[in-house]
Design brief:
- The protein is α+β, with helices and mostly antiparallel strands.
- The chain has three helices and six strands.
- It has one domain.
- The strands form two sheets. It has a four-stranded antiparallel beta sheet with strand order 4-5-3-6. The chain has a two-stranded antiparallel sheet with strand order 1-2.
- The mean pLDDT is 90.
């Protein structure tokens, strides 16, 4: 698969593991219990957007140009669970940083 392919697979595996192992705290609204927030926007930003790893992601049709600079890869797994998506993004960014790729997790609730 190649060097970047191996790094990407390791990052995705770490993200999946972190998201699965995350135990979200439910928001309680009587008489119902909600485990998810509405509309989380969570992902990993890779900088620079014209760097070798970001270019490789572009070639694989993964992610998009960020409005704030760099290349964004959204976390689409884990439905509407902000906590699980955030755990996945932080784990993925950590693996990418360990491979000397500038990567940062971001999250926002809409």
């Amino acid at each position: 698969m190649g060097h970047f392919g191996d790094i990407w697979l390791a990052a995705r595996a770490a993200g999946a593991k972190a998201g699965i192992e995350c135990k979200p705290t439910p928001m309680l609204i009587n008489p119902f219990s909600y485990y998810h927030a509405n509309g989380p926007l969570v992902g990993v930003n890779i900088r620079p957007a014209n760097g070798p790893f970001a270019r490789w992601l572009k070639q694989q049709n993964v992610g998009c140009k960020s409005h704030h600079g760099g290349w964004d890869v959204s976390i689409r797994a884990f439905g509407q669970s902000h906590a699980r998506k955030t755990a996945a993004a932080h784990a993925m960014a950590a693996v990418l940083r360990a491979a000397d790729i500038k990567a940062y997790a971001y999250d926002r609730l809409d």
